[in-house]
């Protein structure tokens, strides 16, 4: 029958064949009993060159197990497995998991696979390529050529890369990710900017420690995409709000004047936050900035401002 190249159908087609089920079973055996690799290696070698891309997609399961036994051998078999397989195989969960686990130690060996994904006409593949190449670049200068290509690539590639920067702000490579995140805040594509602001909703994000990043967002083209995340973050904070919140509030009021009311959801939160910011402010300048926001909210008859003003003494 005709080979199916779609990712989901490849997985389904493979597991519905005898050889595909055998590949899964061998993978399970090798995870449980790695010492059995010598007696199963010929079968694995046969599966990775199977005529069917669907069967090869199942063959990645035992290769994942072999990563724990002999990484060089596993990566070599993987490169053979995908070399002339359908592009759909590169989008399967098993293949993406393999690339993720292999890139930290064998980037040079899988580089051609990532470049193939980067050059693909498939938008989803390019997105995965951007993410994997950006991950590879963390701590590895050898990835720089492909990394720069990814940053200059299409929207799907840039979106994949920026997710890595957003997710790793607080880690070992925080400074590196912050610098590129600032660049992504000014990206011409809205979807890339939306991906860039996801750090605001990540568990454990500390806006006090990352106040420079928040300030950069407030001043950037990505502020409209990040406004709702900023308010969610601010509402969850205990204690004193960072000073940058005052700048964000002042800019947010301008968003509320949009006749299309694209940002109506943040209108409910701004009056409460600006009052909280006012009472926490330690300088006359900071208090005056809050009062300017309150005046604008009153003129716009923003939702909730009358209730807040009823308890407010200027």
What does this structure look like?
There is one protein chain. α5 (71-83) crosses α6 and α16 packs antiparallel against α17 (284-300). The model is unreliable at 1-5 (pLDDT under 50). Helix content is 69%, strand content 0%. The chain contains 18 helices and no strands. It has 314 residues and is mostly helical.
Main features:
disordered N terminus, mainly alpha, elongated, 18 helices, 314 residues
Short recap of the structure:
With 314 residues, this protein is mostly helical. It has helices at residues 7-15, 18-32, 37-47, 53-67, 71-83, 93-118, 123-137, 144-151, 155-167, 174-185, 190-196, 211-218, 223-236, 244-256, 264-267, 270-280, 284-300, 305-310.
Topology summary:
Elements: H1 7-15, H2 18-32, H3 37-47, H4 53-67, H5 71-83, H6 93-118, H7 123-137, H8 144-151, H9 155-167, H10 174-185, H11 190-196, H12 211-218, H13 223-236, H14 244-256, H15 264-267, H16 270-280, H17 284-300, H18 305-310
Helix pairs in contact: 1-4, 2-3, 2-4, 4-5, 4-6, 5-6, 6-7, 7-8, 7-9, 9-10, 9-11, 12-14, 13-14, 14-16, 14-17, 16-17
């Amino acid at each position: 029958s005709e080979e199916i190249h779609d990712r989901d159908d490849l997985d389904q087609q493979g597991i519905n064949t005898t050889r595909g089920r055998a590949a899964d079973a061998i993978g399970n055996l090798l995870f449980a009993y790695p010492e059995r690799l010598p007696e199963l290696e010929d079968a694995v070698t046969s599966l990775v060159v199977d005529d069917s891309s669907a069967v090869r997609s199942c063959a990645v399961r035992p290769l994942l197990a072999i990563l724990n036994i002999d990484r060089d051998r596993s990566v070599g078999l993987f490169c053979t497995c995908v070399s002339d397989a359908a592009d759909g195989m590169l989008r399967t969960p098993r293949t993406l998991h393999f690339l993720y686990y292999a890139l930290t130690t064998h980037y040079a060996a899988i580089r051609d696979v990532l470049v193939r994904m980067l050059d693909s006409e498939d938008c989803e593949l390019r997105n995965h390529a951007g993410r994997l190449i950006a991950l590879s670049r963390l701590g590895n200068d050898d990835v720089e050529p492909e990394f720069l290509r990814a940053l200059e690539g299409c929207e799907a590639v840039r979106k994949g890369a920026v997710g890595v920067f957003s997710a790793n702000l607080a880690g070992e490579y925080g400074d590196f990710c912050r610098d590129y995140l600032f660049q992504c805040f000014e990206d011409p594509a809205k979807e890339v900017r939306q991906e860039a602001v996801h750090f605001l909703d990540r568990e454990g994000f500390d806006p006090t420690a990352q106040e420079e990043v928040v300030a950069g967002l407030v001043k950037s083209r990505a502020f409209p995409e990040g406004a709702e995340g900023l308010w969610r973050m601010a509402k969850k904070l205990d204690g004193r709000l960072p000073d940058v919140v005052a700048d964000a509030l002042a800019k947010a009021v301008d968003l509320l004047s949009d006749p299309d009311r694209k940002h109506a959801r943040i209108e409910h939160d701004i009056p409460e936050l600006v009052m909280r910011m006012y009472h926490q402010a330690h300088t006359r300048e900071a208090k005056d900035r809050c009062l300017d926001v309150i005046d604008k909210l009153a003129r716009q008859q923003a939702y909730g401002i009358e209730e807040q003003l009823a308890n407010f003494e200027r």
